[in-house]
Amino acid sequence: METRNKLDRTVIVLTAAALCEEVGLDNLTLNQLADRLKIKTPSLYNHISGLKDVYSGLSALGLQRLGEIIQTAAVGRSGDEAVSAVALEYRKFAKENPELYKAILKAPELQEPKILEAENIVTQIMFRVLEPYHYSKEETFHIIRGFRSAVHGFVSLEAAGFFRAEYDLEKSYRELVALFLSGMESRRTLP
Questions:
Q1: What integer pLDDT is reported at residue 164 of this predicted model?
Q2: Contact between 59 and 113 (Cβ < 8 Å)
Q3: Alpha-carbon Rg for the chain in angstroms
Q4: C-alpha span between 48 and 57 (Å, rounded)
Q5: Residues 29 and 73: beta-carbon distance below 8 Å
Q6: 50: Cβ–Cβ under 8 A, 6 or more apart, which residues?
Q7: Residue 134 falls in which region: left (phi positive, over 0), alpha (psi -120 to 50) or beta
Q8: Residues with pLDDT less than 70, the chain
Q9: In the chain, beta strands by DSSP E
Q10: Alpha carbon distance 182, 47 (integer Å)
């Protein structure tokens, strides 16, 4: 079989990423994955140690793609414009890749080196985006946590269907980002 000749962990994770968008991350099975790859399920174990290993790969892949997207969003921008662009692209990524985004949320329980590396890259990108504000390292960490919490909270509530009112979701999200930026600005003016 042609797939067997090219099969490796990367191919398995990429296939799992596509499959989980179809069936849902929580419904993903090794049998489904093997079927998609046109191999027998035991053959997967030549490249992965099990479903947890697939989740680990998906989490790292999601973080890597999120990092690439927010870095691209920030290129050529600075300050509020960069933060806004990152926020918009973050939400777009989560909406376009809902199951891969869910895989990112498994990162803390998996604690694999590739995941930690990908998490660190996302954090470093955010540090660079926030450099023009001249916050201390500790302040920047707090701001990054707050930013990710606000964005993730909106994205998660939206995905769960909580925003059913007739008001424009795009405007609500932009207002959230504007409020966050306003809070950052007021923080800079505090004694």
A1: 84
A2: no
A3: 19
A4: 10
A5: no
A6: 30
A7: left
A8: 1-5, 110, 188-191
A9: none
A10: 49
Backbone phi, psi, residue 190, to 5°: -70, 150
Question: pTM here?
Answer: 0.86
Q: Estimate to the nearest angstrom the gap between the alpha carbon of 77 and the chain centroid.
A: 21
Count H helices, E strands: the chain? Answer: 11, 0
Instruction: Report whether 55 contacts 9 (CB < 8 A).
Output: no
Tokens representing residue 126 in the block = 């955010």
Q: What is the pLDDT of residue 54?
A: 94
Q: Which residues contact 140 (CB under 8 A, 6 or more apart)?
A: 126, 127, 130, 133
Provide φ and ψ at 48, rounded to 5°.
-135, 160
Q: Is 28 exposed, middle or buried (0-12, 13-18, 19+ CB in 10 A)?
A: buried
Q: What is the DSSP letter of 11?
A: H
